Amino acid sequence: TFIGVMIGHYIYFIDVYEFLFTVGAALGAMFSGLLFRGRWKLALAYYAALLVAYFASPIAWQLPIWGMWDTYLGGAALIFIVWMIRRGSWETLLKKRASFALALCAFVGLEADVLFRIFLFIPCQTYQLFYGFDVEALRLIWMAGAVGTPVKAAISTFATAMIGPPLIKTIARMNLFKE
């Protein structure tokens, strides 16, 4: 994931600062994989810590709270996955509804990526350090992001739900998984 994102940023170059934000994609992919395997503690701790960091930032309270609605939905999906794992239903869901389980894991991973980017942008103040944005510019960015980001996440989640199950079956038949 990380290599692919880095190549993508070289091809569609915006500025050098964007490379720092690419770390989020690898983190998101890692959390998707961990959740798919039923390992939820690290993902939940990460999500909680970054949301706390965001809301502890004074600038966050000047931005529209609804601007991160997709990230909140990702948190709800993560809590649903944790609930399914803890009650012992996750393996059944993986077997009977693999597309749905993959979509959930992909969506949470995508939103973990978004949350990392938000963490760098707001609590780490790169909006000001790198870009020189003021509060008014941030509000506009937040409103635009509340529309554009969820559309990208929805497309990626749908693609994963469609392509993922046959790909996993093919790889499993090739005995590439240790399990």
Strand content: under 5%
- Figure out the total of helices: 9
Strand tally: 0
**How much is the radius of gyration in Å?**
17 Å
Taking the sheet with the most strands, its summary is: none
Arithmetic mean pLDDT:
89
Distance between the termini: 22 Å
Overall helicity: over 70%
The secondary-structure element order is HHHHHHHHH
Structural class: mainly alpha
Give the CA-based shape: globular
What low-confidence regions span 5 or more consecutive residues with pLDDT below 50? Answer: none
Task: Please explain how this structure is put together.
The protein has 179 residues and is mainly alpha-helical. Helices cover 76% and strands 0% of the residues. The chain has nine helices and no strands. It is globular and about 50 Å long. The model has no long low-confidence stretch (mean pLDDT 89).
Key attributes of the depicted protein:
179 residues, mainly alpha, 0% strand
